[in-house]
Amino acid sequence: MKLDPNTETPAGSGSGEPDKHLRVLVMTAVAAERDAVLRGLRGSGRFDVLLAGVGPAMAAARTARALASAEYGLVVSAGIGGGFIGRAEVGSLVVANEIVAADLGAQTPEGFCSLDELGFGSSRIQVDPSLTIRVTEALQAAGQPVYAGPVLTVSTVTGTAARALELDVRVPGATAEGMEGFGVAAAALDSGVPILEIRAISNAVGPRDRTAWRIQEALDALEAASTVLLEVL
Ligand SMILES: O=C(O)c1cccc(C(=O)CC[C@H]2O[C@@H](n3cnc4c(=O)[nH]cnc43)[C@H](O)[C@@H]2O)c1
């Protein structure tokens, strides 16, 4: 498959409409997310929903294995995630317009240096803008609170206000945070398959407060979003 030389994403038709003859691979970190997605997909045979494991490394390995075993027209990284305050509240959905490995780089006395700045590749993978818009609009039309923006992948869940601010400065407009998206996206990019990431917000990105997690609320939002994906993908 051809890659767009500017974005390094698979070159598409520009409509954001995946080839409906091809299967869709959905990768979730854990079983509770997988089951929510499966409930939303209502038995559709066009989607395979597989476990990625937690964190970008396992997610990349498992996605690469799945992509080597069958032909897919789209890969979706889906799960619960943290929402940046003021951009995505608990219970809402975030559709990635880019997937950013936010802690991949080097710490220097002058501050964080990304992989791009170090000249070792890129820590950002773009999502086809028309796909992001198409999915965001469909979710909105279904009455779900939804935002489009950068979704960060981190290996360490943010647990302080200072770290949240640091990430917000590093990635302007950062909207959500998860732990698998960049791994799933790297495998998809490597196989020339388009990528999408959707996070249902279970907690705010900031000071650690386990009592404030709303995991069931986020899983319900993920299930409802998956029903919309059935129609739009
Ligand atoms: O122990 C904590 O303070 C803590 C806070 C939030 C999430 C966790 C997890 O271990 C969940 C990891 C799992 O869920 C996704 N997730 C959910 N919320 C976030 C978040 O705020 N930042 C990053 N990842 C999050 C993640 O994709 C994993 O699959 C622990």
From TrEMBL:
GO molecular function: adenosylhomocysteine nucleosidase activity; methylthioadenosine nucleosidase activity
Superkingdom of origin: Bacteria
Transmembrane portions of the chain: none
GO CC terms: cytosol
E.C. code: 3.2.2.26
Domain Nucleoside phosphorylase: 49-228
Alphabetical list of SUPFAM superfamilies matching this protein: Purine and uridine phosphorylases
Pathway note: Quinol/quinone metabolism; menaquinone biosynthesis
Role description: Catalyzes the hydrolysis of futalosine (FL) to dehypoxanthine futalosine (DHFL) and hypoxanthine, a step in the biosynthesis of menaquinone (MK, vitamin K2).
Family indicated by similarity: Belongs to the PNP/UDP phosphorylase family. Futalosine hydrolase subfamily.
NCBIfam families according to UniProt: fut_nucase, PRK08236.1
UniProt protein name: Futalosine hydrolase
Species of provenance: Paenibacillus validus
Gene: mqnB
